[in-house]
Amino acid sequence: MSPRKLLRNIGLEAGLLLIGIPVLLWTLIPIYHMFLFAISPKDAAFSGQLWPTNPTLRNFEMVFAQKHHFLYHFWLQMFNSLIISIGTAAITLFVATAAAFAISRLRMKGGRLVMNLALLTYFIPAAFLAVPMYKTMGMYGLLNNDWALVLAMATIASPYAIWILRQASDKLPVELDEAAMIDGASPFQLFRMIYLPLMVPSLIAVGTYALLLAWNEYLYAFLLLSKDTAITLPVALGNFLSADDSPWELLMTAGFLYALPPAAIYYAFRKYMSSGLTAGAVKG
């Protein structure tokens, strides 16, 4: 490698570090402050120290044991969030996988037009659709039911999921379909034996997106669910802000715990969040 090219590479890496390190710190500072609140006594939570003088795990104990009236249903609300998120991911994957297969592999007439029309719904902010969604769920008697939020979030997630899966499906070699059909494979066999195995990385990425979308949702959960035993944890944590003297240390502790499952899910499946899904599917 020539000295000029070496210097250019060093300069590029140094520039990336100069950009990346501040961005990393900017991202981690709020998380650090959340953890700082979680290990601080109530009277020291706003002290401004970089590390509490007397760190404690009492806040975690109170959250785990549900020892505050805002935390009486903490684990049930966490479970509600989990069930709704998994349900949203499952329905989104079912709808998006079937739609992408029909549009991309079966060449369904008008399929791409329908997909593009679905994407146009993103021109309308989701917050504007909250009240119509509330009225619709009320008409069908689904208010205060987990299905209301599952269906609402699947409706929001599906157009993007269909688009992502259709893009990934278009990269699959057509020769695979042709070879399967020559061997007498039906569309369902083509879907089950060829399409799904090759689409696994994209399916995991889309499923993770839908799950996290539902996991972090507040507005629709606030509108569609009302009982303390039915609401999700983000709505329950919002109740902390209604108190005159909010227990911020408990709020941050509960929020920190609530952030752990999606972080674990992301790091478990991060290797699937990349492109090149069909590399090597057909030998040249």
Gist of the model:
This protein has 284 residues and is mainly alpha-helical.
Structural write-up:
By secondary structure, the chain is mainly α. The chain has two domains: 3-64, no CATH class; 69-283, MetI-like (MetI-like fold), CATH 1.10.3720. Helices cover 67% and strands 0% of the residues. The chain has twelve helices and no strands. The chain has helices spanning 3-38, 58-65, 74-104, 111-119, 130-139, 146-170, 174-182, 187-198, 200-215, 219-224, 233-238, 248-269. Helix 3 (74-104) runs parallel beside helix 6 and helix 4 (111-119) crosses helix 6 (146-170). The longest helix is centred in the N-terminal third of the chain and has 36 residues, at 3-38. It is globular, with a radius of gyration of 24 Å. The chain starts with a helix and ends in a 15-residue tail after the last helix. Mean pLDDT is 85; it is low at 275-284.
Please describe the topology of this protein:
Layout: H1 3-38, H2 58-65, H3 74-104, H4 111-119, H5 130-139, H6 146-170, H7 174-182, H8 187-198, H9 200-215, H10 219-224, H11 233-238, H12 248-269
Name its key features:
disordered C terminus; globular; 0% strand; MetI-like fold; mainly alpha; 12 helices; 284 residues
Computed CA radius of gyration, to the nearest angstrom: 24 Å
Oligomer: single chain
Query: How much strand?
Result: under 5%
Full CATH superfamily name of the largest domain: MetI-like
Annotated CATH architecture of the largest domain: Orthogonal Bundle
CATH C-level of the largest domain: Mainly Alpha
CATH topology name of the largest domain: MetI-like fold
